[in-house]
Design brief:
An 8-stranded mixed β-sheet has the order 1-2-4-3-5-6-7-8, with helices on both faces. The chain contains 10 helices and 8 strands. It has about 325 residues and is α/β, with parallel strands linked by helices. Helix 1 packs across helix 6 and helix 3 (about 160-170) packs across helix 4. The protein has one domain: Rossmann fold. About 40% of the residues lie in helices and about 15% in strands. The protein has helices spanning about 1-35, 115-130, 160-170, 185-195, 215-225, 230-240, 255, 275-290, 305-310, 310-325, and strands spanning about 75-80, 85-90, 105, 130-135, 180-185, 205, 265-270, 295-300. The longest helix has about 35 residues, at about 1-35.
């Protein structure tokens, strides 16, 4: 009788464990499906382009027209995986002829695109200070290929950055020593991974980025009102159902494989979307790894808001960093 009771209890225990595990990972899959949605396209920003753009979601008195670029080219080229086509804008300093000016790749963040006024403003600032600029849509964003409609917080998107470096060198004849990269939010993490893998990228600017993918997943869950202990279930669901690694490769590669290439990381102190401690974490890792890192914590700036609160300082800091650390010289706009 005792043996039967023990076996019955064991069966009940195993069934409960199975049910609880299924429920845990089922909730993890729901969270993954919800938070990883990419929302391809460009929404209200589709009317924006380098020569005419503004913030179409709210009233703003920011002088966007000061950063408009009147000559630009539309291009499409192969992305980082088979059947991925990237939609891009090339903003050259010279309409015709070769230019020795450095080239900056601008990488957008989550659920936005090259049409976003944040990205167009940065591109305009760089172009105005004498840099060629490449703006492109990551896969599952803007007008680039929709692969699965989900984001990978940089862990597969980085391959589109590397494909963009390939295009600059192969199609535009750009010297790799003249290539720098700017990334915003998820675009910063994406740019950091690419920088850590591809040593042709000479310098890196991270705007409100993150270093530890596990931390940012947990914080994202908390921000959306989910218990952070569900993070392993969401990451597991991403791997099993979405084929996503989510935690690898890591933005930390930029600091591990820096090869003495410089990094400039900035963060708004009022950023509640990606918390400022992520850039503090970068300072700690930079010290451990001997990275040539400079940082800027902009008082009271919100997520992606430094360029709007401190436009002149933002423009001068970023352009001076790239000018100092890339071969070639910025050129007057023709």
């Amino acid at each position: 009788m005792k043996t039967f009771s023990f076996k019955f209890s064991l069966i009940i225990f195993l069934l409960l464990a199975l049910i609880l595990s299924a429920a845990y990972f089922g909730v993890g899959y729901y969270i993954y499906s919800t938070l990883a949605r990419a929302e391809p396209g460009c929404g209200n920003d589709c009317v924006n382009n380098p020569s005419s753009f503004k913030d179409n979601s709210e009233e703003s008195d920011f002088p966007f027209d000061e950063y408009q670029v009147y000559y630009w080219e539309l291009h499409q080229y192969a992305g980082g995986d088979e059947d991925i086509i990237l939609d891009a804008w090339w903003l050259p300093i010279k309409e015709k002829g070769d230019s020795n000016a450095p080239v900056i790749i601008v990488v957008h963040g989550l659920r936005v695109s090259k049409h976003d006024p944040d990205m167009l403003t940065v591109a305009g600032m760089l172009h105005k200070t004498g840099f060629n600029v490449l703006l492109f849509d990551l896969r599952d964003h803007g007008k680039s290929t929709i692969e699965d409609g989900r984001v990978s917080i940089g862990t597969k998107e980085y391959r589109d950055v590397i494909a963009s470096v390939d295009w600059l060198i192969d199609a535009k004849g750009v010297d790799a020593k003249r290539i720098g990269i700017y990334g915003d939010s998820m675009g910063a993490a994406t740019a950091a991974i690419a920088f850590g893998i591809d040593d042709r990228i000479q310098s890196l600017v991270l705007d409100n980025g993150y270093l530890d993918l596990n931390k940012v997943v947990r914080e994202e869950l908390g921000r959306e009102g989910y218990p952070t202990w569900l993070a392993p279930g969401a990451i597991w669901a991403a791997s099993i159902f979405g084929g996503e690694t989510f935690l690898e490769p890591s933005p930390q590669l930029a600091f591990i494989n820096h090869l003495d290439r410089p990094i400039f990381a900035m963060h708004g102190t009022a950023d509640t979307r990606v918390l400022p401690h992520h850039t503090v974490d970068m300072e700690v890792m930079a010290k451990e790894k001997g990275v040539n890192l400079i940082t800027w914590f902009a008082d009271n700036a919100t997520h992606s808001g430094i360029k709007y609160m401190y436009p002149d300082e933002f423009s001068s800091r970023v352009s001076e960093f790239f000018a100092l650390n890339l071969s070639g010289v910025p050129e007057p706009v023709q």
